[in-house]
Specification:
By secondary structure, the chain is mainly alpha-helical. The protein is 75% helix and 2% strand. Strands 1-2 form a two-stranded antiparallel sheet.
């Protein structure tokens, strides 16, 4: 147990070390920045796969920082939900780092990009593995501040404006979270998440826990871009370079928003019927509002940004249902959305890389010149629309079935409607961008370079075979372990402290 737990701090140490080395050595050697970025993310992805195996064998791993026992000492924890999120985040990060080898050549400061990218990754991994609530906030801010800089990376006027708006609204969300942590600390006299859960369980529901629940719903709602806390996202995602758009939509809003909210609501405060109803309502509202706003968009990346809001709604709805099937479906859709939405943003980046435009009205027939981009975009479009046999179909189906089983028929109806409208939206994308007659001004364009194609191909393959994750033999190791971590509720505290 002691030896295996040593893997946990590596998820923070490796990207931090990579960021430091990149900033120190790669200012004049772009190829070295590529090697450090790819190397760090590959090692992290391999370690995340190892973590799934370790959780399957040991159920839970605990690393005591400085060998101090909790609740006095800081701990890092790895359970089923932790390993699930680590695989999701580091898989996407590795493929985006590969894509960036070619894409970021058009920017002058590649070493700055990789430094900020690895800092953001360190923050996300830190949020996932920490067992201390204040450290969760610290890691969240590391990831958030790096993402503010990355949104403004191109330094154009609209990019700086979007980054400023994102930073202001992100800071508001962070303030709500910090206030919530402060009130909880004052009420429980501890910052260790397991110890805090025990104290709250003993004291029962009070006005403090109700107020803190509202603060966390607002704070993490901003981070996850749930309606009505979504206003920053439609500007920030289109403005960022395509790899960062993919990271923001693919994993950042999930690790800083959805994961942190679920961990606190389920495992510290304890899920209650009012919180469950609020989550389901906000999830359905995000699904419908996001997809209606997306349909009218002609900017490729802005359209995808609104669909991020809509698809996060499915995740929140599934988790809010609170049943074993609902939580499993919500987490499954979280993974699937990370894959197909990252792919779609990389597709949009490839189109912009070759044509110099994001306006769908100016495109047409691009699949004839960019077959890999067109094919992978079709796969991702079918996945996000929930068309079988692609991965998005299975997670949406599970969420809808869970809603019906729990007698939430209207929520099931809105989930189906949003999926139909999503299909209509992406039929428009395929028609105007990739099908039809090739415009004369695009007659000389070429497919994007090899590393960009490789990343898109691998993500598309996961979209095709991702449905296999629902098979019992695979689900038991990966998805069910993650959902069980939430289903155990505040008993999470007993499990943690008994394993120290």
């Amino acid at each position: 147990m002691i030896e295996t737990s040593q893997i946990i701090p590596l998820f923070v140490a490796i990207p931090l070390g990579g960021a430091f080395l990149t900033s120190l050595t790669s200012k004049k050697l772009n190829w070295l920045a590529d090697i450090l970025g790819i190397g760090a993310t590959l090692v992290l992805f391999v370690l995340s796969l190892m973590s799934v195996r370790l959780v399957y064998l040991y159920d839970i791993l605990i690393y005591k920082v400085g060998a101090w026992n909790p609740p006095i000492g800081i701990v890092m924890v790895m359970d089923g939900l932790t390993s699930f999120m680590l695989v999701t985040v580091n898989l996407v990060a590795f493929l985006i780092a590969c894509y960036s080898i070619n894409y970021m050549e058009k920017f002058t400061s590649k070493w700055s990009f990789y430094t900020l990218f690895l800092l953001m990754l360190a923050g996300m991994n830190g949020v996932i593995v920490t067992g201390d609530l204040f450290n969760l906030f610290v890691f969240l801010e590391i990831a958030a501040i790096a993402s503010y800089a990355l949104v403004a990376f191109g330094t154009e006027k609209f990019e700086l404006e979007a980054a400023f708006k994102y930073a202001v609204m992100g800071s508001v969300g962070s303030l709500f979270i910090l206030l919530g942590i402060g009130f909880l600390y004052g009420y429980t006299s501890t910052l260790n998440m397991a110890d805090m859960a025990n104290v709250l369980k003993e004291k029962g529901v009070s006005n403090v826990t109700l107020m803190v629940s509202v603060l966390f719903l607002m704070g993490f709602g901003f981070k996850a871009a749930i309606v009505p806390f979504h206003a920053w996202l439609p500007d920030a995602h289109p403005s960022a370079p395509a790899p960062i758009s993919a990271m923001l939509s693919g994993v950042l809003i999930k690790s800083l928003g959805i994961y942190a909210l679920c961990r606190i609501v389920f495992n510290i405060i304890g899920i209650t019927a009012p919180i469950s109803n609020i989550l389901m309502f906000l999830g359905a509202l995000s699904m419908v509002v996001g997809v209606f706003l997306a349909i009218g968009q002609w900017d490729f990346k802005r359209l995808l940004a609104y669909h991020s809001i809509s698809q996060i709604g499915y995740v929140v709805l599934g988790i809010g249902i609170g049943t074993p099937l609902g939580i499993l479906g919500g987490l499954f859709h979280l993974f699937n959305h990370s894959v197909f939405k990252s792919l779609l943003f990389l597709n949009s980046g490839a189109v912009e890389y070759s044509t110099g435009t994001r306006d769908l009205k100016e495109m047409g027939g691009l699949a004839s010149k960019m077959p890999m981009t067109g094919s992978t975009s079709f796969i991702a479009s079918m996945s996000i629309a929930g068309i079988p046999p692609f991965n998005g179909f299975w997670s949406k189906l599970i969420i809808i079935i869970a809603a019906v089983q729990a007698s939430h028929y209207w929520y099931a109806f809105w989930a189906v409607l949003a999926s139909i409208l999503t299909l209509a939206s992406f039929m428009k994308v395929m028609k105007y961008a990739f099908l039809g007659k090739l415009g004369e001004k695009w007659s000389q364009i070429k497919e994007v370079p090899g590393f960009m194609q490789l990343s898109m191909l691998l993500l598309a393959l996961i979209c095709v075979v991702g449905g296999l994750l629902v098979l019992p033999s695979v689900s038991e190791v990966f998805l069910r372990k993650a959902s069980d971590a939430l289903l155990q509720g505040v008993d999470y505290a007993t499990t943690i402290l008994s394993n120290v």
